């Protein structure tokens, strides 16, 4: 079928299917990385214990970064929208909560001396 011959309803349906496919991809990547992060945090992954604590934290940070930035991007986009209208919604709660935890973890990872 020619794309120019698509009706408005068909175009909307194609866009919705693309959005769903991307959300499923984000879900799968998020689950896989989160499981690896969890197992790495509780020292179950073989060989990870042989590394220094700082190196382990940096590896876990690198794994968490795409989860925070790519998988959670829709919440940050939602936060920007509601911020423009000086209101709040569930995106605000999720974005502020995860961002504050991520910032704290980033500081602990790269500046551990501040917490000793």
UniProtKB/TrEMBL annotation:
Q: What protein name does the entry list?
A: Uncharacterized protein
Q: Name one GO molecular function term.
A: copper ion binding
Keyword Cell membrane belongs to the record: no
Where is it found, in Gene Ontology cellular component terms?
membrane
Record-linked PANTHER family? ATP7, ISOFORM B (PTHR43520), P-TYPE CU(+) TRANSPORTER (PTHR43520:SF8)
What keywords appear on the UniProt entry?
A: Membrane, Translocase, Transmembrane, Transmembrane helix
Alphabetical GO biological process terms? copper ion homeostasis
| Presence of the UniProt keyword Translocase in the record | yes
Taxonomic lineage of the native organism = unclassified sequences, metagenomes, ecological metagenomes
Q: Which residues cross the membrane?
A: 27-48, 54-72, 93-115
